[in-house]
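> example.struct
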């Protein structure tokens, strides 16, 4: 089978706390694909290997498959579905359902990280605006989740779950800086976060909320944010 011949030739260039890299790790775990993990110390600088593998954006994660780079986390996850079709697919088979999954994963990509970053970077009115935006983001995602166990619905744990799950350890920091509680704003999202955190692929790929909070503290010092 294809994956048995080539899955051992996978290398992931990543940074430990990156939610974008973690979604790739979750996908690899869901598919039981072996790979070499290479930690990029982004706080110290970017390696030549990373810069050569992703010369356009110069960012992690980068998946090397047989030495060929695949960039951008959501593209990497889709690539894994296509390159290893004999492994569990994170995208549903139905074209419309696939389009919807891509839409919501893209929504997470464009909204959550940027808004969350503004919560801890900004003060005063700009921070208040970020807080209001985050509350709307969580409510919007809760509406999409509805009463489903996972965003994948009948498909089960899927593409959107893998995309969003890495942000759940950041919730505590968002709550502290934004002065709100996810469980009060979006209780179904809070319950989903608890469920998804118990999944083996997720649990082995993420770090604790305390470690994420400490990392934000390091970033605030690095960038001179009081």
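> example.seq
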């Amino acid at each position: 089978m294809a994956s048995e011949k080539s899955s051992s030739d996978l290398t992931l260039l990543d940074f430990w706390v990156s939610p974008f890299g973690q979604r790739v790790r979750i996908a690899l775990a869901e598919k039981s694909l072996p790979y070499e993990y290479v930690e990029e110390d982004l706080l110290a600088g970017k390696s030549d290997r990373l810069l050569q593998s992703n010369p356009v954006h110069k960012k992690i994660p980068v998946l090397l498959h047989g030495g060929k780079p695949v960039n951008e986390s959501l593209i990497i996850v889709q690539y894994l579905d296509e390159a290893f079709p004999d492994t569990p697919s994170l995208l549903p088979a139905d074209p419309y359902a696939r389009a919807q999954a891509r839409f919501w994963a893209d929504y997470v990509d464009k909204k959550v990280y940027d808004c969350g970053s503004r919560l801890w970077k900004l003060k005063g009115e700009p921070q208040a605006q970020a807080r209001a935006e985050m509350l709307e983001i969580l409510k919007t995602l809760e509406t999409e989740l509805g009463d489903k166990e996972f965003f994948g619905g009948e498909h089960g744990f899927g593409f959107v779950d893998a995309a969003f799950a890495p942000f759940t350890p950041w919730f505590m920091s968002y709550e502290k800086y934004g002065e709100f509680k996810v469980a009060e704003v979006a209780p179904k999202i809070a319950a989903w976060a608890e469920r998804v955190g118990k999944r083996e692929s997720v649990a082995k790929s993420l770090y604790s909320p305390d470690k994420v909070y400490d990392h934000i503290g390091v970033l605030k010092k690095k960038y001179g944010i009081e």
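> remarks
The domain at 95-222 is CATH 1.20.1050.10 (Glutathione S-transferase Yfyf (Class Pi); Chain A, domain 2).
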